[in-house]
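Request: Give me one sample?
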Amino acid sequence: MKKILLMIATLALVATACGQKNKKTSTDNPESKILVAYFSATGTTEAVAKQLAEVTGATLYEIKPEVRYTDADLDWRDASSRSSVEMKDPASRPAIVKDLKDLEKYETVYIGFPVWWYTAPTIINTFLDVYDLSGKTVVFFATSGGSDLEKANAQFKEQYPSLNWKDGKALNGATKEDIAKWVNTL
């Protein structure tokens, strides 16, 4: 009986692996004119970004810091933590891995991030400074414990006035259906 159960379990794993191998993901869509770029320090924003990419059929891209953030770096109660120091300095531009290819093919770029100190982490400024988003529609989305995107929307429209901004949205706990409804309003 154990051998039969083991064989069934093995076959199920093989079938699942084959199904996953053949399943197309949003990152496999070379025809997409939509990019979902996101920074996620803890994985929360990443989960929303993946849902948004699925809903829109977009290409998914992670904005990666050259030096990953540790738990100590993210301790907002510590004035000397990396995130606290960066957020106190409007000129801060944490270094990112510059590996985004074919940006010119995208017409719409969603940029996701966790809200830090009522706005976007300064690594988002780095992304906007490194990559030319001129002529593209740019939309923020974020995750937060309770903040909205009002400050980030205003701040980035002022800092980067030449970009075609659409007001973003906090997508805390959003389902794919919620995301689809929001995307359809843009």
